[in-house]
């Protein structure tokens, strides 16, 4: 996946949400709690990512990116996961080219705005899905 490929993915993969609902519905709404937890933890994940990138902490940046990517995949947030994958590639490639305290903030300026915007859209759609208004994804 190259930079901006993540933008081409759908915001949500409804088949993942449907599968979550089917697999966890017997547990009296656990699927809703799972999605609510993702939405509730998203600001913290984004802040960890921002902090790690802007302070030049390569290990924390990779960990925060992996956390965002994996959790997004688990709820079907395909575009957000794709943007995290784009960031993961940039961390792998660009961070090897110099001082992390210089390179990582540059990576942040390239990736964080799109990730934040996508996270807001994804949260909105997931909340609508929980209310029974899945909308267009």
Describe how the helices and strands are arranged.
Blueprint: H1 14-24, H2 30-54, H3 58-74, H4 78-94, H5 100-131
Helix pairs in contact: 2-3, 2-5, 3-4, 4-5
Key words describing this protein structure:
137 residues, mainly alpha, Four Helix Bundle (Hemerythrin (Met), subunit A), 5 helices
Give structural notes.
With 137 residues, the chain is mainly α. The chain has a single domain (5-131), classed as Four Helix Bundle (Hemerythrin (Met), subunit A) (Up-down Bundle), CATH 1.20.120. Helices cover 74% and strands 0% of the residues. The longest helix has 32 residues, at 100-131. 31% of the residues are buried. The model has no long low-confidence stretch (mean pLDDT 88).
Oligomer: single chain
CATH class: Mainly Alpha
**Please, how many helices?**
5
Query: Unreliable segments (pLDDT under 50, ≥5 consecutive)?
Result: none
Largest sheet descriptor: none
Helix content: over 70%
Order of helices and strands: HHHHH
Q: What structural class do the secondary elements suggest?
A: mainly alpha
Briefly characterize the structure.
With 137 residues, the chain is mostly helical.
């Amino acid at each position: 996946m190259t930079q901006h490929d993540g933008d081409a993915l759908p915001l949500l993969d409804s088949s993942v949400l449907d599968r979550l609902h089917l697999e966890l519905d017997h547990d009296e709404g656990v699927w809703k709690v799972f999605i609510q937890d993702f939405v509730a933890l998203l600001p913290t994940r984004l802040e960890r990512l921002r902090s790690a990138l802007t302070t030049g902490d390569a290990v924390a940046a990779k960990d925060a990116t992996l956390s965002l990517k994996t959790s997004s995949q688990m709820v079907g947030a395909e575009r957000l996961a794709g943007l995290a994958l784009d960031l993961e590639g940039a961390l792998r490639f660009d961070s090897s080219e110099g001082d992390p305290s210089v390179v990582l903030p540059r990576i942040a300026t390239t990736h964080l705005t799109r990730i934040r915007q996508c996270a807001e859209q994804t949260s909105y759609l997931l909340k609508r899905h929980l209310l029974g208004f899945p909308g267009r994804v």
